[in-house]
Amino acid sequence: MSRLRWVVALLAVVVALVVQVTLFPHLAWHGIVPNLCLLVVVAAALTVEAPFVLVLGFAAGLTLDLAPPADHIAGRWAVALTVAAFLAARVRQDQKPSALAVVGTVAAASFAATSIFALSGVLLDDPAMSVSGLLEVVLVAVVWDVLLTPFVLPPLMRLFARLSPQWAAS
Predict the structure, then answer these.
(1) Where are the alpha helices (DSSP H) in 46-130?
(2) Are 17 and 63 in contact (CB under 8 A)?
(3) How far apart are CA 1 and CA 156, in angstroms?
(4) What CATH number was assigned to the domain covering residues 2-168?
(5) 3-state secondary structure of 93
(6) Distances (CA, A) of 11 to 8, 76, 96, 133
(7) Sequential pLDDT tens for the chain (170 residues)
(8) CB atoms within 10 A of CB 160
(9) 10-20 per-position pLDDT tens digit
(10) What is the DSSP letter of 92?
């Protein structure tokens, strides 16, 4: 079951990445798009055990770092999504989270991940990132991610729960 869970999780990340880099740039607000890879990681964090989610967060972030049209130093999204995975996994207290808890977790994880990515860009002198534009990027990213939560997280959480029955029953 563990191998199947990895295949499904990585497939979900790849599908999310393809949609994120092909379809969503046409819907972007000032170049900011929803982070579907983050939503996959949060769905897993609210459903399965933390070690799996931390590795998934790193893998999802690394795919974002390496996928075209990435124009930043590789590793920034990997760190950001790993931290987001850790934070989201802390919400899960051996019980199914409420809808409000799910939305709040997505908002917090989106805020943390986008802030880490943006701040690392400022620290690494990324020409596309400025301190003045930092707040807008973070706020728009959080709004995008929260708006997509009702459409993305429920089916993913059900899928991960079916692949992790020992966690879904608790």
Answers:
(1) 50-66, 76-91, 99-123
(2) yes
(3) 17
(4) 1.10.1760
(5) coil
(6) 5, 22, 24, 33
(7) 588 999 999 999 999 999 999 998 888 887 788 999 999 999 999 999 999 999 999 999 999 999 887 778 888 999 999 999 999 998 876 667 889 999 999 999 999 999 999 888 888 887 766 667 788 889 999 999 999 999 999 999 999 989 876 544 44
(8) 25
(9) 999 999 999 99
(10) -
Query: Which pair of tokens denotes residue 138?
Result: 């973070």
What is the 8-class DSSP label of residue 70?
A: -
What residue spans define the domains of the chain?
A: 2-168
Eight-class DSSP state of 11: H
CA distance 146 to 111: 10
Q: Which residue is it, tokens 């990324």?
A: 126
pLDDT at position 122, please? 82
Contact 38, 84 (CB under 8 A): yes
Nearest alpha carbon to residue 76 among 38, 45, 118: 118
With H, G, I as helix, E, B as strand and everything else as coil, classify residue 158: helix
Instruction: Provide the phi-psi class of 139: left if phi over 0, else alpha when psi is between -120 and 50, else beta.
Output: alpha
Could you give the CA distance from residue 94 to residue 28 in angstroms, rounded to a whole number? 36
